[in-house]
Amino acid sequence: MFLSILKLFAGSHHRKFLRKCAPLVKRINALETEYQKLSDEQLRSKTDEFKLRHAKGESLDALLPEAFAVVKNAARRLCGTTAIVCEHELAWEMVHFDVQLVGGIALHQNKIAEMATGEGKTLVATLPLYLNALTGKNCQLVTVNDYLARRDSEWMGHLYRWLGLTVGCIQNQMPSDERKAAYGCDITYGTASEFGFDYLRDNGMALAPDEQVQRDHYFCIVDEIDSILIDEARTPLIISGPVAEEREPAFPRLRQPVAGLVELQIRLVTRLMNEAREELEKIAENKEPSADSLDKLWLAAHGMPRNRIFLRLMENGRWRKLLEKHEGVLASEIEKDRRFHLKERLYFSISERNHEADLSQLGRDTLRPGEPDAFVLPDLPTRYVELDRDESLTHERRAELRGEAEAAYAQASEDIHAIGQLLKAYALYEKDKQYVVHEGKVKIVDENTGRIMEGRRWSDGLHQAVEAKEGVALEKENKTYATVTIQNYFRMYQKLAGMTGTAETEASEFHDIYRLTVVAIPTHRPCIRIDDNDIVFKTRKEKYQFAIKEIAEAHKRGQPVLVGTASVEASETLGRMLAMAKVPHKILNAKHHEAEADIVSMAGQLGAVTIATNMAGRGTDIKLGEGVRELGGLYVVATERHEVRRVDRQLRGRCSRQGDPGRSRFLVSLEDDLMRLFANAGIVSSMLEKSFKEGEPLEHPFLNHSIGTAQKRVEGQNYSMRKRLLQYDDVLNQQRQIIYGLRNRALQAVDSRETIMNIVEEEIEARLDVVFPDADGDADRRAADTFVHWYVTTFHMRIDLEDILARTKTQVVLLATDRVRALQSGREEHESAEVLKYLERNVLLRAVDRNWQNQLTEMEDLRRGVSLRSYAQKDPLNEYKAEAFKAFERLMQQLRTDTCAGLFRTATSMEALESLMRRAQGQAKATGPAEPGTTEATETKPANAPKPEPFRRLTPKIGRNAVVRIRKGPETQDLKWKKAEALVRDEGWEVVETLSE
Ligand code: ADP
Fold first, then answer.
1. Who contacts 614 (Cβ-Cβ below 8 Å, separation ≥6)?
2. Residue 864 to residue 867: CA distance in whole angstroms
3. Percent share of the chain, pLDDT over 70
């Protein structure tokens, strides 16, 4: 049976995989038949047996056939029982099909299993999750929303629990102890952002180990992997909080001038369009319009593409084609000058496609008349050099002038940035489209669902710019505490796999970024859906009218219809039109996942009409009601093509599940954004020109193709945006891994003291680099003075200048470090070891967190800065990498400084603190060894004594029988101290560590 399916459906590049699976599937089924003879107890006990065998070294691959067979057999035994899923009773009536076994194998092998809607992906995931959970590690499944996480964990939990595994699910707003319990289970369900935010909280914010909730990043299956790794990947996860702003934001001050500029442009374009229309309306069929008119159209396309007259003119295929041609001419290299001068007639140019708005010289002069340099950033480095060279300046005056230059720079760059963002706010963001103003706040509208995204803000000052535009109070910008992109979060997993109905169009991206291959799994039963050609209309109105007619007719027949819309606004418009036509219907727009799942599951009943945005009711499949099959199954009427093909395929896939009949049809109008921005005007217009004269809608396979091409262009563009975001994030990601690694060690408090002492030593050494300009030479007296001052203010103990002058650098490093070490260990007298550990941990955590958060802000600024710099023909990414590296070095430096400064600043009681201070004072006064048994290095020589013998490091007094590890160059030896001592004293060996006392 399986083999015949294989022959029928396998495409060439998936065939190999399927062929390999065939014997495995056979084996699983044979085992499963055998297991049918076992008692429940015997079958259940297999789980422990497998765990044991795996612990003893048997690989998961070897266990796969038996494990899968056990899961399948358990599913069979559960048939006839009921599970409680989201407070409803649900009868269990599923046993894994062969194609589901294949899907399970693909997932276990870290692949993306492309399985059509209704193929039962929820059940497929149970196989690899069970298998991988045998390792004892936490295995995870990512769902698109909270509701599905809960539903699927409860539904499949019925099976897992029977098999003796634990299941948990993460929900939004869940308290941390419940989260921890859920991650403590064998298998955990949850959404990508919950998982990602938990990671950020665990690694970037937790202050004690028991505040961390996640266990492993071992095996993760991402359901609807395309929508999570591709659609959601455009916005990173950010944990942020308010920040104290140093300066008044520039937006309110610059709002008026920018608004004025936009007004000027509106008037300019309207005038141009009136002029152009006058000529074009009069022009005869066989005559070409003047170049001037074409220029005017071009200016409108680049200056105000939503101008009404312009849009009207563009409905005429002839003008659209001519403009397209003109655009091509002007884009050529020879016409560069002409294009430039043309652009200079505008105040600014807009690119809706790239989301950009650029000031022209005219615009700049209008904004800042008589200030030609207002938009050029001052050249700071040159100014610094000038100031340094100017001998006539006093030290103070120079510092003052430097400060002024820096302030001027900051002001200029802030103004340039603010003007850029305001321009975007006015030219590209429309109220009630991209955002709404509600209760004095600007709120973002999700472009996919039309839903208000509560609490989300555009970054980089854009949100404040829109607030300034709307005249509402500017909310404070937030400071980022922790951030990660979805991509980089999921790349952490040792094993990643995914499921979806539609991955093929993005297969190369999955491969490039995640090293995931896509395999198309054949359907259980052949798919017999009929996909009709697209129908193209001139206007949106005509399109909707047609849709209503089509829906009403189907409704009359009794055939259920699912109407797909691109936005909430569109679904409401259609709803009103249907109400007028007296067609009963339900509207869903992804607001209430749970309630919607219920409605969607009814969408296949006789005569049902359901309007849904493409997010609504996701993950719930539509079963056909009685008598519907005979009427042709579910009819999907999509009222718009989405930007990307994948979303369209998802919508189509809503019908014809499991071999059901079904039909789908897309309706498109020239006013749709996709067509306006991306459709190949040449082909589309020439076809439309003919047909639209008769006022007929157009239908032709060729049009589907041309729309597909437009979508591919958008997909390509989105891919490069995501890739770019990732390239930037990769830089940050490396740094994040180092910092989180350090932070985690501090948090686990494994060796905080050692880490701190290493940091102290490094800091001291770095500071001594200046004191000893030549590593083997003498100390510089003035620099040594500075060092002494720093030492006493940081550690509250003195180090004598003479102590430094009389020693080599290596000796001073040891002397200075060992005193700190001694003082810290001495604190054990007053503080318990536990408390001291806690204090040490906090010193590190505080230093890490403060500096890392500053680093995040700095990196954001940097990114903004390099994009300004891209004017200078440099690759911004390289600039960013170089600067980021320097910034990280500064961070590590500051982290050291802060750790040193924090070390003796905290104690649990006044008494402990006082004692610490007393001891520090005592140590400073001591002229002999500072602490009994610290090191030989603290022995002080009189200032004028000759240089001491070459110094060798000795750790605290070592017993004669202690075993130590010593090192000289690359060589190490483990010896009793009584033997090693001589080597250390006389032959230049160093003690690395004491192995036993
Ligand atoms: P998908 O996520 O692939 O679209 P679901 O996991 O939601 O599909 O399952 C679709 C429907 O198919 C569910 O109602 C489920 O009960 C049913 N189903 C899945 N697998 C089987 C099976 N092996 N036998 C019977 N019904 C199944």
1. 448, 449, 564, 565, 566, 642, 647, 650, 651
2. 5
3. 87
500 lines ligand 1 (CB under 6 A): no
Confidence of residue 682 (pLDDT cuts 50, 70, 90): low
Contact 926, 939 (CB under 8 A): no
Calpha distance 627→559 (Å, rounded): 9
Q: What is the mean pLDDT of residues 123-128?
A: 97
The model's confidence at residue 933, banded by pLDDT at 50, 70 and 90, is very low
CA of 639 to the centre of ligand 1 (A): 28
Reduce the DSSP state of residue 869 to 3 states and report it. helix
d(CA 991, CA 687): 85
**Residue whose entry in the numeric block shows the structure tokens 């001073």:** 812
User: Is 614 in contact with 645 (CB distance < 8 Å)?
Assistant: no
User: Using 50, 70 and 90 to split pLDDT, how confident is the model at 864?
Assistant: confident
| CA within 13 Å, CB half, 216 | 20
Which atom of ligand 1 is nearest the CA belonging to 117? 4
- Please tell me the distance between residue 118's alpha carbon and the centre of ligand 1 in angstroms: 5
Query: What whole-number distance in Å separates Cα of residue 889 and Cα of residue 502?
Result: 44
Give residue 75's Cα distance to chain centre.
Answer: 37
- In tens, the pLDDT along 277-289 reads 998 888 877 888 8
Please, where are the H alpha helices in 109-212? 121-124, 126-133, 146-162, 176-184, 192-204
647 close to ligand 1 (CB < 6 Angstrom): no
Which pLDDT belongs to residue 393?
85
Burial of residue 16, with CB atoms counted within 10 A of its CB: 0-12 exposed, 13-18 middle, 19 or more buried:
exposed
> Can you tell me whether residue 659 is helix, strand or coil?
helix
Q: Which atom of ligand 1 is nearest to the CA of 620?
A: 7
617 lines ligand 1 (CB under 6 A): no
Of 922, 996, 987, the closest CA to residue 960 belongs to: 996
Going by the DSSP 8-state scheme, the letter that residue 230 receives in this structure is I
Percentage helix, strand, coil for the chain under 3-state DSSP, each rounded to 5: 55, 15, 30
Q: Is 119 in the pocket of ligand 1 (CB under 6 A)?
A: yes
What's the CA gap between 886 and 855, in Å, rounded? 11
Of 368, 345, 302, 377, which Cα lies nearest the Cα of 870?
Answer: 377
Q: For ligand 1, atom 2, which residue shows the shortest CA distance?
A: 121
96 lines ligand 1 (CB under 6 A): yes
| Matching residue, tokens 């120079």 | 398
344/366 Cα distance (integer angstroms)? 12
Query: Which of 32, 121, 123 for a ligand 1 pocket mutation test, highest count of atoms within 8 Å of Cβ?
Result: 123
Q: Which whole number is the average pLDDT over 412-422?
A: 86
Report which ligand 1 atom has the smallest distance to the Cα of 623.
Answer: 14
Residue written as token pair 């023909």: 873
The string of DSSP letters for 687-729 reads HHHHHHHTT--EE-HHHHHHHHHHHHHHHHHHHHHHHHHHHHH
pTM of the predicted model as reported, rounded to 2 decimal places:
0.72
Task: Over range 403-420, report the average pLDDT.
Answer: 83
Distance (angstroms) between ligand 1 centre and the Cα of 33 equals 22
* β-strand partners of 89: 84
Atom 12 (ligand 1): residue with closest C-alpha? 120
SS3 per-residue string spanning 790-804: HHHHHHCCCCCHHHH
Element (H, E) at 424: helix 395-427
Q: How many CB atoms lie within 10 A of CB 233?
A: 23
Helix or strand or coil: residue 663? strand
**Does the beta carbon of 118 sit less than 6 angstroms from any atom of ligand 1?**
yes
Asked whether residue 616 carries a pLDDT value surpassing 80, the answer given is: no
The SS3 assignment for 245 reads: coil
Q: For a ligand 1 pocket test, name from 112, 119, 499 the mutation site with the most ligand atoms within 8 angstroms of its C-beta.
A: 119
The 3-state DSSP class for residue 638 equals strand
